[in-house]
Design a protein that fits this description.
The chain is an alpha/beta fold. It is built from 11 helices and 14 strands. It has a 6-stranded mixed sheet with strand order 6-7-8-3-9-10, with helices on both faces. Strands 2-1-4-5 form a 4-stranded antiparallel sheet, with helices on one face. Strand 12 and strand 13 form a beta hairpin.
Length: 304
């Protein structure tokens, strides 16, 4: 395993930021790490990258323990924190040379040129970092995280604050990097997760609430909904009494959204209900929940 997290808990005084978190990340996997603000995402990433220790539990990266073998972990991990810390008065190439020196890279110029090409910074290499747009600063952050050729890349909110064009560029860059690295990143942009990630973990209030492929999470945790329109008025309570119904929401006067309790098809039950109540079904459609809807339901509809 590239990353092994076993029963990790992190306390800040009496506050429990992480509560018994366990998961593994396979080599070459792109993992989206999701959760509302304050859920513990950044704390988990800081623990994996050896910035802070867990209160209890064990974490290994590429087989190395983060506490007893922290230098080996750092050699195998590239990290881009949420607030990208850059020396704004340094030139792009100068900064990457500085980082390469910290990692004691032997052929610095060759490696710097490779990173400039990979991250699309060749044309910007002689500019001061402070003169770059946020999108290009994120590219510099990715270049510094990759320059020592780590096996694992940890990115905390790498696309936060980017405009749609910058977001698309960084998303494509992440996808390309993920072909060769194990990659774990947090984000609040659900379309990004669906487009890039092999797998998704959702945490809420320090606990894991979902783990699986993005397309499978709905059937595992929240089911689906049926949007149905009748020819007459009907009460919410009557619809809620249908077998397999979890909750009911009114969309318009005669159009309802009926949320299923599990994965079984409740449309036959709705038709039987309509016959019993002498209703005509004008339209009926099955609506699969989006990842964003799944996220909101699993985290108590906390704001993204």
């Amino acid at each position: 395993m590239s990353i092994q997290v076993s029963n990790v808990t992190k306390l800040y005084g009496e506050q429990k930021a992480l509560d018994g978190i366990s998961f593994d990340v396979n080599p070459g996997e792109i993992l989206g790490f999701l959760g509302p603000n304050g859920a513990g995402k950044s704390t988990m990433m800081k623990i994996i990258t050896t910035f802070i220790p867990p209160t209890t539990g064990e974490v290994k990266v590429c087989g190395f323990d983060i506490q007893s073998q922290s230098m080996e972990v750092r050699r195998n991990v590239g990290y881009l924190p949420e607030h990208n810390p850059l020396y704004l008065d340094m030139y792009v190439r100068e900064y990457l040379g500085f980082i390469a020196g910290l990692h004691k890279i032997s052929n610095k110029d060759k490696r710097i040129n490779e990173m400039l090409g990979l991250t699309g910074l060749s044309a910007e290499q002689h500019k001061k970092i402070g003169a770059l747009s946020k999108g290009y600063r994120q590219r510099v952050g990715l270049a510094q995280a990759l320059i020592h050729d780590p096996k694992v890349l940890i990115l905390d909110e790498p696309t936060s604050g980017l405009d749609p064009n910058q977001l698309a560029d960084i998303r494509e860059l992440i996808r390309n990097i993920g072909k060769e690295k194990t990659l774990m990143f947090s984000t609040h942009i659900m379309q990004e997760v669906e487009a890039v990630c092999d797998r998704v973990i959702i945490i809420n209030k320090g606990k894991m609430v979902a783990d699986g492929k993005a397309g499978e999470l709905g059937s595992r945790s929240t089911g689906y909904s049926i949007r149905v329109e009748f020819d007459k008025e009907i009460s919410r309570g009557a619809l809620a009494s249908i077998t397999g119904v979890k909750r009911v929401e009114r969309i318009s006067e005669q159009l309802w959204e009926i949320f299923a309790e599990g994965t079984g098809d409740i449309r036959p039950d709705i038709f039987r209900f309509a016959v019993e109540k002498q209703l005509t079904v004008l339209t009926i459609n099955r609506h699969e929940q989006s990842l964003e809807e799944i996220f909101q339901e699993l985290t108590g509809k906390t704001s993204l």
